[in-house]
Structure to design on (211 residues):
C-alpha cells in the first residue's frame, strides 16, 4: 500500500513539474506580432494640362537708310574781300573818320552758304582801316533790339540796313550779297550814304571754295 502511495506521489510530482514547465514556456513566448497593414494609397491629384503658348517672334525693325550728310563747304572769303575793301577805301566822296555800319553778308545763292563766315571775314578786312570807324557788335545788337529784331537777324534789305545805320548814328552802310551758284558764288558790295541812300561805290568779286 505504501508503495502505491509513493508511486502515485511520484507520478503526481512529475506531472506537476511538467505542467509548470509548460506554463513557463507559454509565458516566456512572445505574443505573436500581427503583420502591419499597408497604408491606404491616396490617389494622385490630377493636374490639368496647360496648353503651350507659341512663342511669338520679335518684330523686326526695318533698317532705315542712312541719309548722307551734305558736304560742308569752305570758302576763301579773305581773297575775295581784301582787294574789294582796298578799292572801297579809295572811293571818291568817302570822308575819313565817318562811322560805317557793316551789314551781314546776305545769301542770294541757290544753296546753303556759311554767310556768317563771310561777314566775319569782311569785318576782319576792315578792322585796321584808317578811313572808317566801324559800328561794333554791341551797338548793332542794341539797335536791332530797339527795332524789334533779334541779334542774329540779317538785315536782308538796303532799306532795313539804312534804318539800323540811322539808329546808331552811322553815315555809311556797306551792303554785301552773295549770288549765283553756291559752288562758286559772286559777291557784290555797295557803299551807301545813310542820309540819301545813294550808292557811292560798288564792287564785285568771286569767292572760291577751299578743300
Amino acid at each position: 500500500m505504501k508503495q502505491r502511495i509513493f508511486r502515485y506521489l511520484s507520478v503526481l510530482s512529475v506531472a506537476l513539474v511538467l505542467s509548470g514547465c509548460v506554463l513557463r514556456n507559454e509565458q516566456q513566448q512572445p505574443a505573436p506580432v500581427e503583420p502591419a497593414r499597408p497604408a491606404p494609397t491616396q490617389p494622385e491629384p490630377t493636374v490639368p494640362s496647360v496648353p503651350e503658348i507659341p512663342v511669338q517672334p520679335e518684330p523686326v525693325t526695318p533698317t532705315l537708310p542712312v541719309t548722307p550728310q551734305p558736304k560742308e563747304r569752305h570758302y576763301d572769303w579773305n581773297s575775295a574781300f581784301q582787294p574789294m575793301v582796298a578799292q572801297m577805301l579809295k572811293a571818291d566822296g568817302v570822308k575819313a573818320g565817318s562811322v560805317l555800319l557793316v551789314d551781314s553778308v546776305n545769301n542770294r545763292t541757290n544753296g546753303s552758304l556759311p554767310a556768317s563766315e563771310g561777314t566775319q571775314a569782311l569785318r576782319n578786312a576792315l578792322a585796321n582801316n584808317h578811313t572808317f570807324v566801324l559800328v561794333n557788335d554791341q551797338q548793332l545788337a542794341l539797335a536791332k533790339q530797339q527795332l524789334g529784331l533779334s541779334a542774329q537777324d540779317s538785315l536782308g534789305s538796303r532799306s532795313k540796313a539804312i534804318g539800323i545805320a540811322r539808329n546808331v548814328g552811322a553815315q555809311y552802310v556797306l551792303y554785301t550779297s552773295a549770288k549765283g551758284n553756291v559752288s562758286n558764288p559772286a559777291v557784290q558790295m555797295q557803299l551807301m550814304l545813310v542820309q540819301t541812300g545813294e550808292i557811292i561805290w560798288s564792287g564785285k568779286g568771286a569767292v572760291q571754295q577751299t578743300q
User: Anything to note?
Assistant: The mean pLDDT is 80. Residues 53 and 59 are 17 Å apart (CA to CA).
